[in-house]
Write a structure and sequence with these properties.
Number of helices: 7
Radius of gyration: 18 Å
Distance between the termini: 30 Å
Order of helices and strands: HHHHHHH
Mean pLDDT: 88
Strand content: under 5%
Number of strands: 0
Shape: globular
Length: 194
């Protein structure tokens, strides 16, 4: 029933404001993506609150959202697989890896520089469900993602081995790894079959 009302509402918006079909496609994609992300973030917030890591989770989400919105990455076909992937990603980067994998401080700048380079060379990797962007828009996203990674990397280097720096470090590393996987899958024609 809600879907019918949503469609009627969107049709009314299109006719009232003379949006093109492409603009409506972008609007529908944005509304679906935002609502899905809000629901997922709320569910994960409750879980990380119960685990006693809510502030760390919010730091991780802030870093991940700013990078991922510009670089893209793996996109799951269904909400539940997306939720499980995000849960695994956040659990690893917020709790497991910072607690159990110690990366020597002198090696962190090297790994971060490699992450910046990989992001510059591969980003953005967008969902096939998303309306295609122009080459200029893709360049802007890539450049923005690269600059954000550089800024976060400087902050991590300044903060050294604090828990927040470790969480940000692992968010960047895991985001870069999944960006590489997404780029490889897209080139191999297997993208969106995950």
């Amino acid at each position: 029933m809600a879907v019918i009302h949503t469609e009627q509402f969107l049709n009314q918006i299109q006719s009232s404001y003379q949006f093109t079909d492409l603009e409506m496609k972008r609007l529908k994609y944005t509304l679906k993506a935002v609502s899905s992300e809000l629901i997922k973030t709320l569910m994960l917030s409750v879980l990380f609150f119960k685990l006693g890591h809510l502030p760390e989770f919010f730091v991780g989400v802030l870093v991940l959202i700013t990078i991922r919105c510009n670089s893209g990455g793996l996109h799951m076909e269904h909400f539940i697989t997306c939720l499980l992937f995000t849960l695994t990603f956040m659990f690893l980067s917020v709790i497991v890896l910072p607690s159990f994998v110690s990366v020597p401080y002198p090696i962190k700048p090297v790994i971060l520089a490699l992450c910046i380079l990989i992001t510059f060379l591969t980003a953005p990797v967008a969902s096939k469900k998303r309306p295609s962007a122009t080459p200029e828009t893709k360049r802007r996203y890539r450049n923005r993602a690269t600059v954000l990674l550089f800024i976060f990397s400087i902050a991590i280097i300044i903060l050294k081995t604090t828990p927040i720096a470790d969480i940000c470090f692992w968010i960047i590393v895991l985001q870069t790894l999944q960006l590489l996987c997404a780029a490889a899958a897209q080139k191999g024609g297997n993208y969106e079959k995950i």
